[in-house]
Every structure is written in C-alpha cells, then in structure tokens.
Queue: 4 jobs
Job 1
Amino acid sequence: MLPVTPYAYPAAHKLPGGARNPRDGAHYPRGDAGNARGGAPDRTRGIHNLPGPILLAAGIVSIALTLTAAGYGELVWSALCGLTGALCLHFGISLTVVEQRRIKAAKAQDTALRSDI
C-alpha cells in the first residue's frame, strides 16, 4: 500500500495562507488573491506598466518642447528635445505593447487553467 500524503488527496491539501485547493470549489482568501470578489488570483491586475505611460507622456511633452524651441529659433534645443521625444515615444510604445502581450498571455493561461478544472 502506498503511503498517504497530502498530495494523494488534492481536495484535502492545504495551500499556504489558509487557501484551499481550487479544485474543491474553495475560494482564495480576500486580499491575497488580488481579486475583490474572492476567487482565483487575477495575475493581470496590478501596477506593472508604469514606465510605459510615463515615457509616453514624457515623449509628448518633449515633442511640444521641440515645437516651442523651434518657434523661438533655438535649433540645438529643438534637436535635443526632438531626439528625446522620439526616444521616449519609441520606448514608451514598446513597453506598453510588451505589457499588453503579457496581459493577453496571462489571460489565455488563466482561461486554460480554469477550463481544465
């Protein structure tokens, strides 16, 4: 006869933090799950993409400064602001796209895991 371990009966296995196995219909405790309704943790929430929008805003401001400096005839400042604006917009858009792909992949994985239960 095989030894009885907590893993032999998944419904009896206790997870850390007082949560129980999601296969037995139990909910995760509120606060640890990241989901206000209780239920499975939502990995798509949280503040992960702050650098993307910050860089986008800085790029827009820098482009506005480029136009202002060009209007005053300051070619060096307009070139510098144009370069920083282009770089900030490029990296801001790139980070935002990467974060959206991460969220999409996490949602697909969560859907696959929940349909497996």
Note: Residues 30-36 have pLDDT under 50 and may be disordered.
Job 2
Amino acid sequence: MTAPASRPSVSRRCSHVLIRVHDLPGAVDSFRAAGFQVAYATAPEHKALHAHVWFPEGPVMELLTTPPGARWMRLPVDLRFGRGAGERMVRWARQDEGFCDLALLVEHSELAAATGELAEDGVPCGRAVPWTRRRPDGGTARFAFSYPRGGRLPFLVTPYDPPQHPAGVRHPNGAQAITRVVLGVRPADLPAVRRLADDAPELLLEEAPVTGVRAVHLAGLTDPLDPALLHGAVLLPADATPVPPTTHSKGSSTS
C-alpha cells in the first residue's frame, strides 16, 4: 500500500530503537561495560524508566523498563494514549529482554496531519500525544508521539525540543553511528510498515514471522561486542553480514 499520488510523501528517518530490559540500572552498567556512554533520560535517575545511547547525529538506542503492573494496564493506557497503545505497553512488559520497538521521526508540525493521512490509507493511529521529560541536568525535553493501532508496527515521534544529540559523545568501543536497522516484517504488516516508514534510509526490511527489530549495525566498532552485556540486543559492526534474511519479494529496502 502506498500513499495516493496526489499526496506528497513525507520523508521519514529512524529516531530510536527501543531495547526492553528488566533492570534499568543493571542494563546501564552492562552497556557501559560494553563500551557505550549511556545517559539516563529522566530525573531522578534512581526512578528513571529510560536511558539513551546517543550518537552525534542520527538514530539512537533507548534502554527502557516498564512500571510495576504495566502488564495489566492495557485499558488505562488506551484511554490515555489512544487505542492500540495499551497492547504495545503490555507487550513491552511481558516480553523478554531485547529489541521491543522502533520509533520513526516526523516533524512536530506534521505529526497530526501524518496520523490523519495514515488513517485514510488504512493505518489507523492514536492521537498525537504531547509529552515532557525532566532531564537529570534539570532541563526539560518536549516531544510528541502517536502509536499505530497495530501493536507491532513502528510508531511516530517528533524530535526532542530542544535537540538532545550531544556533539561531543565518544564511545570507548568506537561506535560512531547507527548505519542500519534491520526490521523483520510479517508479510501481512508490510503495506502498513512501508506506509509508515516511507523512505527511511537506515531501514532494511526483511521477511519474518513476527514484525520487530532483528539487528542494529554500528559504524566504528573496534571489536565485536560481548552479547552477554547487551541484554538481548543484536549489535553488529556496520560491515558485518546481516542476520540471514528472507527478503520481501518487492525488495529489501523501504523504497
């Protein structure tokens, strides 16, 4: 399924890959031991549910855990964030550690219109939800998001305001940027994923029984990473052979 010819295509980029962890402080320690700089997303740090692995530009990785009782919060989350959001949070809460979601970047001024256009094209989304986080440095980060009703489809998020990418980040393991996000896609989800992702340049789509991130490729890694430190995430050097795929018959890119 593609956008109607009369509708201009909105360029997409990957915003961040979400990695579900059971114990956020423990996961932060592990990723730091693997050679990443990791920054808690919210204050106070001991209550934080999110932490980021930043790069100077481009997509980032977000470690997240879920609040107690999240697996039973489907209805309240749907009421707060729109139909489909509850299914997504329940899945995050119940799954094992590892990749749990993918966020696609859309400009704040375009988010509401994008969700309307997606609904017209058969990809209904929840309403655009404005959100605020208090950072550990005392500053405030604002953004907005919208979750498709399909609980495994990538979701939309706006850039952080103010921008959060630290220009001076240096990872001891040499990682410089995410060059590729390998997204497994169930054939039935392919039209919706293509409509959501548009031409996101970092995204590689591969046929899979369940829709979800399969691997992330990183430029600049000096040595292979210890899988025991990655909490289920598959992080590979940019020149590594991708996880063996069965590519979609219409091509393995989002174009």
Note: Residues 1-9, 245-255 have pLDDT under 50 and may be disordered.
Job 3
Amino acid sequence: MTIDDRTDRVRERVLEAACELFSKRGINSTGVDLVSEVAGVSKRSLYQRFPSKDHLIAAYLPRATDRFLEGLIPDEDGGRSPVENIVFFFAASQRKSTEPDFCGCPVLSAAAEIPDPEHPMRKIAVSYKDRMQGYFVQQAQLAGATEPTLLAEQLGVLFDGAMAYSLVRDQPFPDSVLITVRTLLAAQGLDGLPHTSASSDSLPAVSAGGPSTRP
C-alpha cells in the first residue's frame, strides 16, 4: 500500500464522517473534534487534508449535493419527453422527502447556516443551483416552452420552497407541489401530461388528499 493510498483512505473517512454529521447535526453544531473522532483519524491527519473547517465544508458540499441529486434527474435514454422529465424530477423529490433519513437540500441547509457571502462554499452552492436551473431551462427549451428561462426560474423557486416547507413541518412534499408544476407547465403551453400511478417509474398521479407523513 502506497502513501497516496493511505492518504486517500483517510481523506475518504473524514469526508464520509462530515457528510453524516453535517447533514444530521448541522454544520455549525459539528466541530472538527467530532468529525475526527467519528472518522477514526487524528486531528493532525484531518488538518493535513483540510487546513480548516471551511475547507472541509467546501469539500463536503459537492459530495452531499451530488448524492442528493441522484435519482432526481432522469436518465437521458429513459424514453421520457422533456415535460415528463421535469415532472419526474419533482415526483422523485417528493419520494425522497418521504425517506426516514431525509435531511433536505444540503445547499439550502449550508446557505442557511453560513450567511457569509464570501465563504468558500457559496460559489459551490450557487453553481449547484445554477446546474439545476440550467437543467430546467434545457428541458423547457426542448419541450417548446414560450418562456423557458422564466419557467426554469419558477420551477427552481418552487423546489426550494417545497424543501423549506418539508423541513419546517417535518413532512414530505405535499401533492400541491406536483399540481403547481403541472400548472406552470400548462401556462407555458405544455399541457396534456398523462396521469399514472404514483408507484410508477414515470409520472405520479396527483391526489386530492393531504400530504403523507414520513414513516
């Protein structure tokens, strides 16, 4: 085993510990001492890889956000139309919000805990929100929306609002989120979506009942 291999493994343990602790306990409530303890490495080893907690946060956020987005953006070869891709994103987000360990969007959580606009994580946070909005713009353009940029902005605001609603109330996304998605799409001339079972891998049905609760 080379020194580089050992270094990578230590760094990996530290990042995994940070992902677990920052998401569950919060960034500000988690000290470097606890991260090193959970990772099973010395503080000296941690600081050799991450010179400060800010560096650790900046490394944690891309990993946490990539994991958060897994399963939300459908495969390009999934056979869905651009409109269906947009609805799929929100339907998958709703399903994710029902998971017992759901902790919300890591970008929003980090921004709420660290208001400093000069913090190194800020550019990372903005880049991920731009990435999501860029995906909405792309799909809206492919679908032929009359104002794709406006639609993408509306969808981004809806997503962030739904995340905040879910966390504050400790409930999954309400069905009204999916109803609103369809309303925004229809306003852009993108109507006529099929309504299928909520257990389907394509699009969910929107029920008239209240929000479900997490198990």
Note: The mean pLDDT is 86.
Job 4
Amino acid sequence: MTYLTTNPDLNARDEPTTREGALVYAVDGLLAATDPIGIIRDESLWYLGSALEGEDNLELVLTTGRDREIALRVLLRGEALTVGWGGELCEDPVVTTVVAAVPSLGEMVGLVDTELSRELRVSRRRRLFGGASEFHLLRHGCWTDLLRQGAPSSERNLKRAPHRTTLRTA
C-alpha cells in the first residue's frame, strides 16, 4: 500500500482529487501484482500539492532503498504526467523518462509499468534494497548512472554492477 505522508509541510491538501485517487489506486494495484512481497509498496509515499498548488497535483515516490536518489517518481501536475528517477520533492526527476500531456489512467499506469520493467544493473552490495553502491538504468540503449546525477555510466562503474534485474518481482 502506498501511504500519504502525514507531514503538513509537504502536503497542500489532505484529500486527493478524483484523478489523483484513481492514479494512486491504480499504481497500488500494479505494485500488488508486480511486487507481491511488498518491498516497493511498503516504502512508497504520496504527496498532495507538493510540486505545485492546485488540482491534480500528486507526487508518488516509489523508493527502491533507503536513499531517495534512486526512487522512481511519478508526478501528476494538472494535465501532464512526468515519470522519472531520482531528485527531490517539488522538483523534476534527475532522469526524466517520459512526459505525457493529458494521458488517460490506463496510459499513466502503463508508463509506470514500463519503468518497473526497465532493466537495471546493481552492485553486489546493493541488491536493490541495500546501501548505495552502484545503480544503473538502461534507457535508449545506454546505461545511465543514477547515483551520479544521471550521467552516462562509465565502464568502470558498470563492472562494479554485475547484477541485471528489474523492480518487478512477478
């Protein structure tokens, strides 16, 4: 289950709009199917109105470890959806993988599912949910280093990340 953060400084509102609630419910269902043991789901948080004030302004943070720099982030801002990796609340992700204008709920869930299915390379120490060591994301046929602000991955760092995986466990 994704959880609404209770920090009032991070939420402009207490209740989601209909569209925000539908997206949270749909992503939660997707995570229930792809992450049955609940590793991602138990770490997920959502924030209302943190990116911008107003309607349909939601941030979902699907954390893949204790460090937020490698979280999968979903931002619904008015009519636009941004999906990406890393970054701070109220800001764009460090690595943006897609920006969609006026997507349907099915399209939004499909974009999140694509990110959960994306190939990752991680170090032995990390094994996804351990300490920060190496974390690389495959996009457009190239590896991106998420721990180094989205820079292209070096051969040296890729050698330290021999394990190929995805966030999907189903």
Note: The longest helix spans residues 18-34.
